[in-house]
Give the backbone structure.
Amino acid sequence: MSKIISKRHGQNNSAGGVAPDRSQQKIADHIQSLKNNIEYMAKQESSLDTIDAVVGRPVERLIPRDLLIPAPDDWNFFPKASDDKIKEMSESIRQYGLFHNITVWAQEDGKYMILGGHTRVACFDYLASEESGEKDHEKWTKIPALVYGKDQITEMDAQRIVIVSNTDQRDVSTKTRAKAYMNLFQLEREKAFYGSRFDPLLSAASQANTSKTVFFRYLSLMKLIAELQEAVSNGHLSFMTGYHLSFLSSDLQKFIYDNRIFEQITTQTASQLKKCSTIEEIRQKLRDIERATKYYKYTFQTRNQKSVDEEVLPLFVEKNTRNEMADLYIQAVNESNFPQDIKDKLINTMSSAKIN
C-alpha cells in the first residue's frame, strides 16, 4: 500500500546516495535505518492491505501541516513519544528523509485527520521550529501522506486504521496492545452484528497481522485486574502466566496479587490454578505443588550384581558435600570389622563416586 517516495522529502542526495566524507559509522547507521524502516513498512503494509482490500487504496499527496488534526483520544489512546524520541527521529528524518508516509482521512471542512503517523507529524513540527536549528523551515510545512477520501471509509474503518498503524510500533506495551486488540475485536463484532458473515475474532486477528490464538490470548489479558495487567506490562508477570490467571475471578486474582503469589509462581503453576474457584482451592493447589517438588521418585540401574543376602541402601547427600561424605564413608568402612574383600569392594565403589 505504502511506498518509499523516490525523492525523499527534505533530502538532497549525492550521486552515490552517501556523501564521500561520511564516517563508516554514519554509513552503518544509514543502512540500519533503512532496514528498520523497510521492516516497519512491510509489517504495516501486510496489516493495512486487509483493510484496503475492502475500502480501496488511498492516494499519495503532500499535505500542509496546518490542515492536519489528530485522531480523537478514544481512538488514539496509545502513549505519546517522549521529547527525546521525537528529537532522535527528527534527526533521522533530517538526514535520510521520511521513509514512510503518514495516513490521513479527508474531512468535510477541508482538514485531514491523522490516522497513522502522529509522531512523524510531531517530528515535522519540531523541524519547523526554531529549537531544531533548521535553517530552511519551508520544506517542513508539508508532509507526504496517504489520503483516504471523506466518503471512502467510515468511522469504523478509520478506527481500525488507527489501531493497526499503532500496534505495528515496536514499543507498544502488552497492556496497550491488549486494549487495542479488544477495540479491534469489538469493531469486528459490531460489523458481524450488522450482517458480516466473517468470524469477528479471525477477521480482527488478520488485521492485526497475528494468529487467532495469540490474538485471543491478548483479549484474555483484558480480564485481568488492573494490578496484574500492569505486572504483565512491566515484566513482573509473564504473558502466558497472566493469560492463565485471567481465567480466575477478580476476587481470586486480587488474592493472588495482594499475597504476592504472582511473583512466585511459574506458568505451569498458573495453568493448574486457573480452574480453582475458591481461595482455599488455590491454597491447597499450591501446597500440593510445593509438596510434589520436594520429593522425587528415582529408578536406579546398576551394573553391580546383588546376592540374595544383600540389600540396596540409597544414600542422598548435598551435591557440594559429595566428596566429603565419600571420604567419611571410606573412613568408616576402614575402621569396621568387615572382611577385607568387602571393605575393598565398598571403598572402590565410594572412591569411584567422588568428583575429581
Summary: Confidence is low (pLDDT under 50) at residues 1-20, 37-46. The beta strands are 59-64, 68-69, 102-106, 112-116, 142-148. The chain has three domains: 1-152, 223-294, 319-353.
